[in-house]
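RECORD TYPE: protein structure
NAME: Ig-like domain repeat protein
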Amino acid sequence: GSSASDHVTNVGTLNLTGVETGATVEYSTDGGHTWNTSFSAVEGLNDVQVRQTDIAGNTSSATSFSFTLDTSATAPGVALTTDSGSSASDHVTNVGTLNLTGVETGATVEYSIDGGHTWNTSFSAVEGLNDVQVRQTDIAGNTSDPTSFSFTLDTFAAAPGVALTTDSGSSASDHVTNVGTLNLSGVETGATVEYSTDGGHTWSTSFSATEGLNDVQIRQTDIAGNTSSATSFSFTLDTSATAPGVALTTDSGSSASDHVTNVGTLNLTGVETGATVEYSTDGGHTWNTSFSAVEGLNDVQVRQTDIAGNTSSATSFSFTLDTSAAAPGVALTVDSGSSASDHITNVGTLNLSGVETGAVVEYSTDGGHTWSTSFNATEGLNDVQVRQIDIAGNTSNPTSFSFTLDTSAAAPGVALTTDSGSSASDHVTNVGTLNLTGIET
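PREDICTED:
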């Protein structure tokens, strides 16, 4: 054993000295009551008395001797000092020290990490799997059977990787999405994941994204009880897009609210930054990112798809594009007199045709320099231009028209063609024809 003088041994035989030749040696294990010529040590404490009777018949006094016979050492019990983490019995821990039981007082404990080939009196766990054997050698020199023990030392948890399950919309990397679930990577098997939305003050094992900006921190606590540093992640959850407002850029003409215009462009409001605007002119069957108005009635639907991929409901809008006005037809209301087409009349009003509903008619009598919404013919030659401005604000080309207003005829002068005879002024003649003057052409 560890000491040559502690009277603890794994060999239970005695070495006697001073025994005379031929003497008989006797042993007593009951305090001298009974004696035997042989002695067999028993496991544990042995109190023995030894005496000799020499050949002359003299019996010596007894020599008392005590020792402990210890012929075996039990294998020590081995466990983790702390089986940390989610389970107290899974042999996964962040504390790499062992708790030994059944080690005898004074025994030497040895450890082997190579299957028993080499042994050391100290043990330092390594990160990861540890296969260790533990034995003791007691003070009697007995070496126990080894106890095998396996455990995993895990002293660190990595911060998890965090991404969006789906970064929807126009960009797959802008962190704007209509799907508010997270994809975690690097989470250890059996680890507990926790989320914080208040900068790490409180933590929860579940996370529900809210509409708008989400600032979330994620950490994991592995089965060894190690809590990782937190991974911060920000994203915007956008699950809807509002229908855009639609109006005419310019509602031209006589009314600013009749949806009749000569400018076919639209003014959109409420379009989100980065959104894609689409137009449909067939009731929503097909959609295009551009729109060109056509002459006449336009029924258009407008929608937007925001950067998160949400498509709004469609806004319907109708308007009439009118980009031109025809020159009006101009004639006399009555072309009186001997000819119905000579533009000479005693009625100075005009008959206009082709004037659009709601249009404003204008007249010019100075070659187009000035215009008026009324016209009064003057006696004699009238050179007039007539144009219309429709409700869309289009001004037609002018129509030129000339006519003569003649509202009276002078009495003709009458004389004899020939006032024959002795007097040329006596109105007595032999020629009965008259000479008329002042007759209009």
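COMMENT: Residues 414-441 form one domain.
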